Amino acid sequence: MESTHQPADAGGSRSVSDQCSELVLYVNGKPHTLTLDHRATVLDVLREDLGLTGAKKGCDHGQCGACTVLVDGRRANSCLLLAVAQDGRRITTVEGLAEGERLHPLQEAFLERDALQCGYCTPGQICSAVGVLAEAADGFPSHVTPPGTGSGAPVELTDDEIRERMSGNLCRCGAYPRIVEAVGDVSARAGAASWTSGGPAGQGVAS
């Protein structure tokens, strides 16, 4: 798939070499060859060029988390990422978490716990939660992780840990208690580790 953003300069001409670059993004396991304006963000490319509208544009300043995706398995605010700087990277959006008709455990948990109201922030919340599971499993501490926790040891996702780690994802509806419960459910389930080591088709949360 190809997409081209080539805005005219002051003289009305277009210059691919000066303003645009060709790159390859692997989105939800599929390669996309694109020619993009150097100013294009990953969020805009996902929504406007690839038709993946799960990631939402909320604040457009990296403050609300509605645009959260996974880049090489780590969560990131896609509204702050220049697409040309992601050449060759693997990006997973909420659309890529399910495996066929089988939802990701976090998607199921959000439904079971009714961890959403309007749903606008939910894709970002779920992608962020997937990243949280991976970070905790890989031993990344948070501000509330007990100082005595062994370096590199998996971190137990208590409610306080989940709240701290998910604090960058805002919910105007105030569904936070249910979100914490949903993430806690998945963390506690046997088999959750298999989802934090690659996810469906290796696209979930690769370490």
From TrEMBL:
Pathway(s) annotated for this protein in UniProt: Alkaloid degradation; nicotine degradation
Record-linked Pfam families: Fer2, Fer2_2
One annotated GO molecular function: oxidoreductase activity, acting on the aldehyde or oxo group of donors
Keywords: 2Fe-2S, Iron, Iron-sulfur, Metal-binding, Oxidoreductase
2Fe-2S ferredoxin-type domain ranges (all copies): 21-97
Presence of the UniProt keyword Iron-sulfur in the record: yes
Protein name: (2Fe-2S)-binding protein
